[in-house]
Amino acid sequence: MYFFTGLLGKAYQHIFKQILEDVLNRQELMIQLSDLVVSNGYFFHHAVNVATIAAVIGVAKGYRTEQLFDLGIGALLFDIGMTQIPEELWRKKGFLTPEERTILHQHTVLGFNMLKDQDNISLASAYCALQHHERYDGSGYPRGIKGKGMHEYAKIVAIADVFDALISARYHRKQYSPHEAAEYLSAAGNILFDYELIKTFLSHVAIYPVATTVVLNTGYTGVVAKVFPEFPLRPIVRIIQDPYGEELKSPYEIDLRKEMNVTIVKAI
């Protein structure tokens, strides 16, 4: 199998270099989430998406080139252990038995063991495979370590993995919208994930690009007029339609940073 050859590191470095160049060429690192959602060939495309998100966070944190490459390699290969898990198990719809779950959880250790002795792959990159299911509060696996015990690259990959998984079609659950996934990450800050890294990610991704049509919890419909990197879930919205579907004769703007009781419930 190709994954066991010594060419693995160099091949994926080449892929990540292209991803990194793409991210760096985007103004202010703002990327359209639609570019991240790829449904075919799930594991490969998911890995590319995760690496893209990880690159955004790494660049935003000011990582040096060598750090970005180590992070990128780890992000591309974090789920490599799944190639050693029976396909019928990870494709299974519905609940897993305790025995099946134990087998599935082994992909973290299997992936780490596949990467740690590979040429051109650092130990830090391999930790992304081992620790991407660990959680900030110690509730993850395989070792149940807490946030400070995780390598930062693995913390970043954990966020990217969950975000992309949520907005992608899966066998066992519905596909979530980007704003629903962002809300989930925000709510899980310093519980499941490092909140500072979540803020870094969300402040550099356009959850609601300007001109996006949105529906508010008040029933009114509007168009995103202005976004704020520091408040990605709370843009200025120009209200154009009432809850009954009638166009407003005098549209007006509402700043969701100030109207904390008003939230976006759906992007159209």
TrEMBL record:
Record-linked PROSITE patterns: HD_GYP (PS51832)
Domain HD-GYP: 21-217
Matching Pfam families: HD_5
Stretch forming the signal peptide: none
Domain of life: Bacteria
The protein's name: HD domain protein
Organism: Anoxybacteroides amylolyticum
